Amino acid sequence: MEKASIIGSDITQVKALLEGGKVVAIPTETVYGLAGNALDVTAVAQIFSVKKRPTFDPLIVHTHSFESLKLFVREIPEQARALAEAFWPGPLTLLLPKKDIIPDLVTSGLDRVAVRVPNHPLTLQLLKSIDFPLAAPSANPFGYISPTTAQHVADQLGNDIEYILDGGAAEVGVESTIVGWENGIATIMRVGGLSIEAIEKVIGTVQAQAVSSSNPAAPGMLKSHYAPTIPMREGNIEALIQEYPSKKIAVLSFQKAYPAVYKNYILSESGNVTEAAQRLFAAMRELDNSDADIILTEFVPAVGLGKAINDRLKRACAE
Ligand code: TXA
Ligand code: MG
Fold first, then answer.
1. 46 and 169 assigned to the same domain
2. Hey, which end of the chain has fewer CB within 10 Å, N or C?
3. Of the candidates 156, 148, 153, the residue with the CA atom closest to the CA atom of residue 164
4. Whether residue 31 has its Cβ less than 6 Å from ligand 1
5. Ligand 1 binding pocket includes 119 (Cβ within 6 Å)
6. CATH code, 263
7. Residue 166 falls within a domain, yes or no?
8. Total domains present in the chain
9. Is residue 215 included in any domain, yes or no?
């Protein structure tokens, strides 16, 4: 039998594992990450292997401060500086021209590296205690729902990594918003845990990338992403229910209760999209672990984190 990972909060042990080139799970305010030394190609290769992620899909590099960026980024546009000042540590990732010290494997050969300063006390403490940044994708097998608790990580990767640093349930609940500059224009590459409204208050109007995926050459090309194993459909829930008279139906609703179906998870009874984001992935996992035949869901209002929720729901429903 393989050895199960330790779930704990011993930063010293995690530091030693990372310094030894190992891969561990770390908490962030968005989702849990599968982390390794971003400057060590072997550790980075191990991340791709544990996650079963194709190497054409690049990783985000996590660091403890804006100042530390100069070690691995060539230049920082003024707008990037303003966003970092306003929102770091926080659920914002910036795409910036990389220095050679970042291995090509981290960026899948692209010239830009994705960087962010996560807002989690344990992980910030860890990042300050080591002298390299951490490459970390979400700590789920490629294509599945992102983990928002240490237990979610253990459920799927518990035999593949030695340690899961437990920082409690993720506060934001959806992945970071990714911003890059296309011909000098700030562009949202992935909607996420920082609202576009908040970004535009700081740097003015931004453009949305045509493809909702953060990288058109990568996860967006796969038909589904963030996907449960049970089929999931989005639409008018009342109408959809009529289509499955003899099935065990699970409903993932925004605000309204559906007491007549087999299982119902309400994202936010008060209709708060921030609360709904926080609960989204745990809800999808819970329904996916039930023995329902189908999951029916609906979009939430497209304001604030609602856009990120709808993006994840849409991709979870793709076949
Ligand atoms: O909130 C988050 O961002 C979480 C936590 C752990 O920080 N991380 C996360 O990583 O969501 P991941 O790997 O699951 O998603 C990162 C996305 C991928 O879709 C990838 O294609 C894109 O960021 N990305 C990373 N580096 C990139 C680059 N150099 N250019 C374009 N896209 C990039
Ligand atoms: Mg992911």
1. yes
2. N
3. 153
4. yes
5. no
6. 3.40.50.11030
7. yes
8. 2
9. no
| pTM confidence score | 0.95
CA distance 129 to 125: 6
Which atom of ligand 1 has the smallest separation from the CA of 139? Answer: 6
Which residue lies with its CA nearest to atom 29 of ligand 1?
A: 113
State pLDDT tens for residues 139-179. Answer: 999 999 999 999 999 999 999 999 999 999 999 999 999 99
Q: Give the per-residue pLDDT at 126.
A: 98
* Contact 148 CB / ligand 1 (< 6 Å): no
Q: Which parts of the chain register pLDDT below 70?
A: 1-2, 210-224
| Ligand 1 neighbour 102 (Cβ under 6 A) | no
| pLDDT tens column, 176-227 | 999 999 999 999 999 999 999 999 999 999 999 865 444 444 444 455 678 8
Q: Output the residue whose Cα is nearest ligand 1's atom 19.
A: 214
Q: Which two tokens stand for residue 110?
A: 């692209």
